[in-house]
Amino acid sequence: MGIVKAEEPREASTIVTVSIIDDDPMVCQAMELILNDYSQGLIRVVSTSTGGREAVRKARSEHPDVVLMDIAMPDMDGIAATQQLRALPHPTHVLILTSLNPSNTVQRAIEAGAEGFVSKTDAPEEIIRRVLDVCQGAPQFNVASQRQLLADLGSSRPQARRDEARALLNALPARERETVILAAEGMTNAEIAARMFISERTAKAHLSSAADKLAMGRVQMARLVERADLDDGTRPVISA
Question: For residue 168, how far is the Cα from the chain centroid?
Answer without folding.
Answer: 24
